[in-house]
Amino acid sequence: MLRAFSEVFPVLDLSGELERLLEFVQVSRVTRNHEYTLVHVYLESEKLIQKHFIFELEDCIKSQLFENDPLEIKIIEKFHLSRQYTPRKLMSVYEDSILLELRRYNTLLYNLFRESQKEFTEEDRLELGVPDNVIAEGKEQELLEILEKIFCERCGLNFHVSAHRVEPKENRRKKLLEHEFEQEVAAITESYAASKEKEKAGDEDGEEKTGENEPASSARTDRAEPDEAGKKSADKGKIVDLKQKTDTRKSRGRWQKTDGMYAKRAFYQSAGRTEAMRKSSDPDVIYGRDIVGEVTALGEIEGESGNVVVRGQVMTVEKRELRNEKILFSFSLTDFTDSINVKLFLSQEQTEELEKDLKEGAFLMLSGMVAIDSFDRQLTIKNVNGIRKIADFREKRQDTYGEKRVELHCHTKMSDMDGVSDVADIVKRAMAWGHKAIAITDHGVVQAFPDANHA
Asked: CB within 8 A of 49, min separation 6: which ones?
């Protein structure tokens, strides 16, 4: 249920641009974790709000409402933007916000995105030229996933992003440091050579003065030469061994280079795992394998709890097209003790098949891995093993008393700030319980009468 921000936080003291931006913002829900260390506030807005305002709002809520509580405020914003916004136009006005968010989240990702070349081949297709360095080796995939979250889930746009490696730009600071290092090495080498010359000159003077020590001196020199040679050989062997290990890691690693493009081998292998979407003969299983295990209530899930079996009713369903022709199919599930988000990565054919049964209002049982998204800190079910259709498990209230009562004081949603139910639902519930009549007593108004009469 959406409520105005000012209704949910009536005592929050805001001013200036932030107050104006929040005038038409609505709150869909407010949740907290079991340890009461993290509070999520879910906002929905028709207008784009820059990230520095979101961070400012988090600080205001924390300082004014939870000053003495050791908890963190995390706002999850969702924008319903007009059709004039395309990913290309959004990037032009929202790039600074993305950089600010990445900087707070992870400095490596921030630098990787900032130094990448950004080119839109189409209005909804972004090609990132990622610097070919060690940072990209471990962070490129995560960066692409975060960009998809921002453009697809937060802003509701169809967005495709891919990446290729480019030669990194020349770093003046790095070049200066390398030059200073070379100078230090040259100075050390020169000093070492001078000390050797001085030592050699001292040895020659000693040999002239004490001829009887010549054999011993020669013996020491003979012994030193093979030691020095052995040390150089060992060092060379270490270098060769290190190079071999590095080459082996590259050949067995997650990245392979093909036609100048780097691809994450594991990612493409995992992408093929969903081809056989249904692996059960049970017609009620609409995805994956049969589900085995005891059902866990969503209200009992505390943090990352591994693989669980849950059931619930689907509240919302969303799908977004991603790179590599994959579809992000996400839906929210509630068992009326709590709710949770579920994410699937499917092909277009699999999505069309799943959409037939996975709709808003459907009751499902599923098995998957509970994980906390490191970017937005939301509890999510990923790596879904199976989804099964089930019957409505809610226990409906019954009126079993022999003599039925008549409710003579009932408010509908037409009573502002008092009733929340639709009059048709109230009338149908009274009929289901066998009541002969019901009195609607809204606050001095009769707006509900036509709907009540039709019901």
From this structure: 21, 25, 77, 79
